[in-house]
Amino acid sequence: MADITRRLGWRHLRGAPTAHVRHHHSGRLVHDGPGLSFWYRSLTAALSEVPVDDRELAMTFHARTADFQDVAVQATVTYRIGDPALASARLDFSIDPDTGIWRGAPLEQLGTLLTETAQQHALAVLARTPLASALVDGVGAVRDRIAAGLAAEPRLPATGIEVVAVRVVALRPEPEVERALRTPAREQIQQEADRATYERRAVAVERERTIAENELASQIELARREERLVEQRGANTRREAEEGAAADKVRAEAEASRAVRLAEAEAARQVALADAEARRTERLAEAEATRTARLAAAEADRAVRLAHAEAEAAREVGEARAQAQAAWLRVHADVDVAVLHALTGTRLAENLPHIDSVTVSPDVLTGLLSRLGGAPSAGRREPGVADGTPPGGRA
């Protein structure tokens, strides 16, 4: 379809290289050719656009064979418009000056013309051909007849149409008829398959028989070899028994010799152990005697040292006591008799057993008070003090 542009009451048309444009103005042809581009006024212009490229027309129609079987024909016709001026004169290829769209349907008219013409010639050739022949050789025959018929059709050149090629894609019968036609071939194929199966089974049986014969011959040969094997095994067993007896004899002699050597070695070992034990016992006794003598000497020395230490300690203790006693006497030599009496009572109380309670009678208390009141004079000495004897009469 051509491109049309509007500019201030004018129209500009730009055609495609595969479209032949014819421009008439007031009945006069102004522009004519493919791929044109020009300005025009829509009110005074008459435009036609004729496609000049090759076009494919697919068609499918039904036909009846000589044996009254329906078949479907699928074909394709390739054509082009060789004379655009003649085609635009016979068919309406005019376009709208404002939109560039065809006012009619010229391509549909061409398709109807080509389809009906091709269908007419195909029906004529299939009506005289049986179904089997049509399925085998019908494609070529129908194609040739359609091509010849379209070439001889006078209306096509008068319309400016050229047929480029004719192709018949397929001839198909009805599904039921097609299945019925396939049945013999399927049966034949099945028979061939069955025959191949039977032949394969026969070959397999023959091979199985051959295998069975081979197995039987192998079993017979194996039985003979088994018999020879049993004989050989018996001979081997006898030989093994003889060799085993000889080996047992040698083994027994070796065991006896080994036992004797072991007994002798054990006796020598026991003697050596006894001697070693005696020497060990003797060394232990000597060591024990030496240790005992050393311990006795050490114990005697320790006892002597302890005796000397105890004597020295006793002497030092006696000297300490004598010195303490002398110091005590020196301290109490000039002390008053009453104080000495008090100290004596204190020492006595320390040495007395435990007393829970003391009962003092009035008579005793009176005597004590009177004695305390009539204390001796300072120049008077209690007995035993002047001569250095401590109270209680202890030296």
From TrEMBL:
Residue segments, region Disordered: 371-395
Boundaries of every Band domain copy: 32-197
Q: Which residues form a coiled coil?
A: none
Q: Which InterPro entries match?
A: Band_7, Band_7/SPFH_dom_sf
Pfam annotation, one family: Band_7
Q: Could you tell me what this protein is called?
A: SPFH domain-containing protein
